[in-house]
Specification:
This protein has 311 residues and is of the alpha+beta class. The chain is 47% helix and 16% strand. The strands form two sheets. Strands 3, 4, 5, 6, 7, 8 and 9 form a seven-stranded mixed β-sheet that branches. A two-stranded parallel ribbon has the order 1-2. The model has no long low-confidence stretch (mean pLDDT 89).
């Protein structure tokens, strides 16, 4: 409501049938609002989750650009103005991403600066490299101004019914993007203190099931011509998820066999060794202490492989 952007803007609030008074509060604020933002509240008939809420927003948006703001976070007053300033430089720009700050339990801000300068990536290969270097291009949907036609034309919606939906959505975004800008300005404040958030409040068995769905989807949809790099990136991440969740979902064992089989064609020696190591550890894992132990051992393996020049 306090944005310094002076252009036309619509704000869609999705009523996902929550149990608090959020919508009633929003309606009162909107009724008293006198600014240039057009507000509209869209109502679900029943609770459908974050992915469905975002998809509803995409399907009903009328503007040239889309920006996702989670209900427990907030943005700076100059957020949209700074992002739009860069988006307007060239009609080919598909996405503008800024930096963010985590708000901890004690109220302190942990600022995440991905770069101290403005970076423009004008090819899919450059964007892929930034994606695989996750410190430069974070995977979450929030704090990104995205051209609506890009999302619609490529049919990039969020998979409904799962948590960690941003991870899978970011994978499909990466496949198609060819022109993006990253700016150093902090425009988003992420509330990391909520213990009742969707992710924090989910049971481990649910997290395991949804993580399995995501990694199965990814490995089944590698990009033609980019299979090797995508495979090694996600297979290495899969090893950590495997050791964490295989005690709660035995389907991970079948998925591990799938990753190992594909490793014969696309995997580096280092990646394949990590898969086998994770599988062995998964047979003996009995809790979080083992996960912590494995992470330390993983570091030792990384150092050994580096010295042996296997990579």
């Amino acid at each position: 409501m306090c944005q310094s952007f002076d252009g036309s803007m619509e704000c869609l609030l999705i009523d996902d049938c929550g149990t608090d008074a959020s919508i009633a509060i929003a309606e009162k604020l909107i009724n008293d609002y006198k600014g240039n933002i057009h507000f509209d509240i869209l109502h679900h008939k029943h609770n459908r989750g974050l992915s469905a809420s975002r998809n509803t927003g995409i399907e009903n948006a009328k503007g040239d650009y889309i920006y996702f703001l989670d209900s427990d976070d907030y943005i700076t007053e100059d957020c949209i103005r700074l992002l739009m300033k860069k988006a307007r430089l060239d009609s080919s720009i598909e996405l503008v991403q800024a930096c963010f700050a985590d708000i901890a339990y004690d109220g302190k801000e942990n600022v995440n600066i991905t770069s101290n300068e403005i970076i423009r990536l004008k090819s899919n290969n450059d964007i892929r490299n930034a994606y695989f270097n996750t410190s430069l291009f974070h995977l979450q949907a929030w704090n990104k101004l995205i051209k609506r036609s890009f999302i619609v034309d490529n049919n990039i919606l969020f998979k409904e019914g799962i948590i960690y939906e941003d991870y899978l959505w970011g994978f499909y975004m990466m496949k198609h993007m060819s022109d993006i800008i990253l700016i150093p300005d902090v425009t988003y404040k992420k509330n990391s203190s909520r213990v009742d958030s969707i992710t924090a409040g989910s049971k481990t068995s649910k997290k395991a099931k949804h993580t399995w769905i995501i990694y199965k989807d990814i490995i089944s949809n590698l990009s033609p011509g980019h299979e090797r790099k995508e495979y090694n990136f996600f297979a290495r991440r899969f090893t950590l998820e495997y050791t964490k969740y295989v005690p709660y979902n035995t389907e991970f064992k079948v998925l591990m066999d799938m990753y190992k089989k594909m490793g014969k064609e696309y995997g580096t020696i280092a990646t394949v060794l990590k898969l086998y190591g994770a599988q062995i550890l998964g047979e003996f894992q009995k809790g979080e202490k083992i996960v912590y132990w494995y992470k330390k051992q993983k570091l030792k393996v990384d150092i050994f492989l580096h010295r042996a020049k296997i990579r």
